[in-house]
Each structure stands twice: as structure tokens, then as C-alpha cells.
């Protein structure tokens, strides 16, 4: 009641415009709800950054408050009361942390912002130790006047900040070689170790696609997991393993292939030799969840690149063959892979039926593989895309909308349960640091898909400033040169067990 009275009194002492009164009443109601709903819960539950943040909002004097936010000393947002923070606010936070961390023992300072707001920065530190975090209070200058820091810096506020100091440990500087994915990607040479030369014959799961099957895919665009017959290979005979079969057998098992040996010294052609697969991780920008995500990038030959549908078919076959042969590397931790599809593949009604047969033959769960569809295709080939998404929903595969820009014609596709992730148009996320409209669209996309239970990822992150802002607004994943680079799928290993 006291808090409500404190906000209601100015409403009767001075006439205000309807919009100003609306903002003030909303702020009063929000403040009253916080003090009424959370006071008893915060007293009973163990303290956390979130609970202390709510208590800080209650402890502040009557203000026309925009937001209260809490950071660690690496500019990471630990809690935000409401709304979203843009690049301008993050620039303020970065400068403030540098100033507070200069070692002058300052208890905080205030700074006016060009758009009619004032920001108050309060350092989080234990005694006079180094700054481990910071609290930023954004308020409207029309309702605060001068000396806002003196009004905010009360004993109760500083008591809560001292509690924050016990919850926010000093964050170590980010190492250049730090791998935010939590993956273990082997960077060893591609040369196999000596013991691999004398390794036992491959199991059935390791068998490769027959050259005839690869040619069938290239010529007809058909998917078929036709494996090489398991026959004694030439290599073990050359390395003289234990008792070899009788001399007459090699000619019987190898009639013509023995002659072309000089011209084809390499082992039988497998999918990795016809279409090279690289993986680009989706790097987690927010904590939580164990799922590892990779975008598969097929590198085809000039001939394959002239036929995108055949390249897509080969990429699917190569991926499923690798997954079948290296199950421990992707099943110890939940892992999924995505492949970007061409127009020709989306228009082929046989594709999903053939994929379903490939899943059945390889024993791979469809939930582990998803297909990326570029947003322009969703508008140019709407009927085909809707049919394809419906087929993925029935099959169990998931769908990713690539280059999502909030196009009104594409938004209804997000209703499908098969759509699990959207990749924000790189033109929007890169322009958001300079353009307010692009900034607003990125924030709107993040918030909208979050309501729908869909993940979002940012692409082409090239700077730490962009990375910090995209993390702050709530992006789940990121891709870019400062996070991770594509690597051959053969180097993907199972994560180290703690």
C-alpha cells in the first residue's frame, strides 16, 4: 500500500498528458506487483541473481523506470527486469565497466543518454576488491531530475549489491582458443596412426557405397544404400596377414578388378571421396541443454555442382553412411545435423520417400537429421515447401528456415511442429549494430520464436561486439568466424566424459 501511495500521489498534484499518466500508472502497478508478489518468496527461497534483481527493483525510490539489468565483468547479461537491450545500451555497459574497473574505488556514477534517459551504474565488488559485475538502472530524466545516483545509493540497495558480490564470481578472460561449443574436435593430422594400417577388417556398419550405387545417384537422382559386398580386400593380402586363402582363390574373387589396380591404386570409392562433408557447429550462446547441432556443408565435384539435386542426394547418403559407421561419435551426447536443400530437391516428390527408405536401411533415427530451407524458396515455391514440411513432420525430420527476416508470407509456416529453428537473415544481424530498424527486427524475431518454442540462430558473427549484443537479446546459437570454422566431418569426435 505504501508503494502504491508513493506513485499515486503525484497523479493528483499535477496534470499530465494521457500517455504520461499511462506510463506512470504502468510503472506503479509493476512496482507494486514486484513488491507484493516477490517479497515473501524472496525471503523464503535461497538468494539468486534473479531474486536479488527483483528486490533491487523494489528497493529503488519512485522512478519512471525503464529497466534494471545485472552483468558480470565480461558484459554478459545475467538478469534483465523487462524489455530488451540494444547495441547503444551495450556500448554504455562496456564503457562503464572499463571505467569502474580502472581501480579508482568508485561507488558508481550516472550518465545521461541522448534519448532522454539517464543511466546509473553501480559496481559489484567485495569490499574494495576488483569489480566482478555491475548493475545498470535506466530511468526517464523527466521524472528523475539531477542527482539520481544519490537517491538510488541507499543502504538497502548497497546491501543487495553486497549479496550479488557473493553470487557473481570473477569471470576469467575469454581465451582465444576457447571452444564455446563444448565439443571435442580433433585437430590431429589426417594421416592414420601406424596401428590403423593393420586394423581388423571393417564391420558391416563401416562398409562403403559401391561405385555403381554412386553412379546411380548421379545419373538418376535415386537414393539407395547399396553397400560394397564384403569380400577379402587386396590390402590385407599385400600385408601378409595370418594364413591366406589358397592361391587359386584370388583370381576367382577378383577377375577384372586385378588388372586396373595400377590405374586405381586408391581403395574402393566411398561417399567421402565423391562428396566431401564438412560440419559447421551451431555454437551455444546461452547456457542450458545438451544437444549439439551441426550444419553439414557438402563439397562436390564440378560435375556434381551442376546437378544440385544429385548433390543433395549424395550428401544425405554420405551423412547417413558416416553416422552409421561412427555411432559413438554422435550418440554419446544428443547430436543433430542439418543439410541445406536446393530448389530441385524440394520439387522432387520422391525425395522424402527415398530418404525414409535410407533411414530404415541405415538404422538412423529421422529426429537426428534436419533440412534447411532458404526463406526466398518459402515464398517462391510455397506449395512445394508446404508439402515438404508436412512430409518432414510425418517422417520425423525437422526443418530449419534459413535467412529468416520476418517475411509475412513465411511466418505462418512456423505453426508446423517440424520447424525447430530459424536462422536470422545475416543482413539483419550485421546491420543491427548501426540501424535501429534492423535492431528492432532481430529483437522481434528472437522474442516471437521464443513464444513458439522455436530456437533461433544468428549467422556470420564477425565481431565481439555483435556477439555480445546477440547474446544479450536472447539468440540461442551463433555461427561465424570468431566462434568456429568448418571442419571435415571425419574430425568430429565424441565429447570428453568428465
For the largest sheet, list the strands in their spatial order: 7-14-13-12-11-10-9-8-6-15
What is Rg? 30 Å
CATH architecture annotation of the largest domain: Alpha-Beta Barrel
Q: Give me the CATH fold name of the largest domain.
A: TIM Barrel
Q: Give the C-level CATH assignment of the largest domain.
A: Alpha Beta
Report the helical percentage. 40-55%
**Class by alpha and beta content:** alpha/beta
Task: Give the helix tally.
Answer: 22
Strand composition percent: 15-25%
Our measurement of the CA-to-CA distance between the termini, rounded to an integer number of angstroms, reads 52 Å
Largest sheet: 10 strands, mixed
**Domain tally:** 2
| Low-confidence spans | 1-43, 173-208, 221-240, 247-273
Please report the total strand number as a whole number.
Answer: 15
**Mass-distribution shape:** elongated
Would you tell me the overall average pLDDT? 75
CATH H-level superfamily of the largest domain: EAL domain
Furnish the topology, listing elements before pairings.
Blueprint: H1 2-13, H2 18-44, H3 49-59, E1 65-72, E2 77-80, H4 87-100, E3 109-112, E4 117-124, E5 133-140, H5 141-144, H6 148-152, H7 155-167, H8 194-197, H9 211-220, H10 234-238, H11 249-253, H12 271-274, E6 275-281, E7 283-284, E8 292-300, H13 302-305, H14 308-325, H15 327-331, E9 335-340, H16 343-347, H17 351-362, E10 369-374, H18 375-380, H19 382-395, E11 398-404, E12 419-424, H20 426-431, H21 436-451, E13 455-458, H22 464-473, E14 477-478, E15 487-488
Parallel strand pairs: 8-9, 9-10, 10-11, 11-12, 12-13, 13-14
Antiparallel strand pairs: 1-2, 1-5, 3-4, 4-5, 6-8, 6-15, 7-14
Helix pairs in contact: 1-2, 2-3, 3-7, 9-14, 14-17
